[in-house]
Design goal:
This protein is of the alpha/beta class. The protein contains 7 helices and 13 strands. Helix 2 packs parallel to helix 7. The two termini are about 25 Å apart.
Length: about 240
């Protein structure tokens, strides 16, 4: 069933309203939905409902709520902190990792990350990243929308790690532990698992030492050297299947 994202939708409502112009255009003009058609609405925070269109215009669509469902968020939470690759590959990373169940995405600026965009352009990129996450959430029928952070440095992302988190970072330089060999009990005992994926050319020695000093565990996905987007999607896919299937 078609899904509509309404972030201000709350449990006590018997009706809810869609105000986003792009979402309205897609629903009414592209998909050709009309009065009395049924859709699914969700707020990205675990609340979703079957609903019926009871009024519609170019600036507002009102839904009657038919049945509600509150979905529990699965733990441990999965966070991807990934160096931004060239071109639009980061959008692919967001899309695929959202489908796989990521809870949080941190675009990383590392020593070897090439970012020459002005702050205004980065802000537009962030809005685009959020749109990609919303669309992937709809497509995969997720109840929770992942949080997409603004771009931050590797050191800033490491500062977000708490004592209840497990930090893993992809390392081309030995020694490192194979990701499948990390004990399930260790993974499941944590509140959040943060996976750091470096840029083309890997993290610098200084960045690797900084990660180690913060308690992060160096891991490998195998003998092959993977592109940034391949490594990110493979790591999150593996952890999601292992912890949530």
């Amino acid at each position: 069933m078609t899904r509509c994202y309404i972030p201000n939708f709350i449990l006590s409502q018997k009706e809810t309203v869609l105000l986003d112009k792009d979402e309205i255009h897609h629903l009414i003009n592209v998909l050709r939905f009309k009065l009395n058609d049924d859709v699914f609405v969700f707020n990205g925070k675990g609340l979703q409902a079957s609903a019926t269109i009871i009024s519609a215009s170019s600036h507002k669509v009102t839904f009657r709520i038919n049945s509600l469902e509150e979905v529990r968020q699965q733990h441990p939470l999965l966070t991807l902190a990934c160096a931004i690759p060239k071109r639009s590959k980061f959008e692919t990373i967001i899309e695929k990792c959202t489908e796989l169940g990521i809870d949080e995405i941190i675009p990383l600026r590392t020593t070897r990350t090439e970012i020459s965009k002005a702050s205004e352009t980065l802000a537009r990129c962030h809005r685009r990243y959020e749109e990609v996450a919303i669309n992937a959430c709809k497509q995969s029928q997720r109840a929770f929308l992942p949080k997409v952070h603004s771009v931050m440095t590797f050191a800033q992302a490491l500062d977000l790690i708490s004592k209840n988190d497990l930090a893993l970072f992809g390392a081309l330089q030995a020694p490192s532990q194979k990701l499948p060999e990390i004990a399930s009990d260790l993974l499941r005992s944590k509140e959040r698992i943060v996976v750091f994926i470096g840029p083309e050319g890997d993290f610098t020695k200084e960045e690797a030492q900084l990660a180690l000093s913060r308690g992060a565990i160096p891991v490998t996905l195998g003998p092959n050297v993977l592109k940034v987007e391949t490594a990110a999607i493979a790591a999150i896919g593996f952890l999601s299947l292992r912890l949530r299937s």
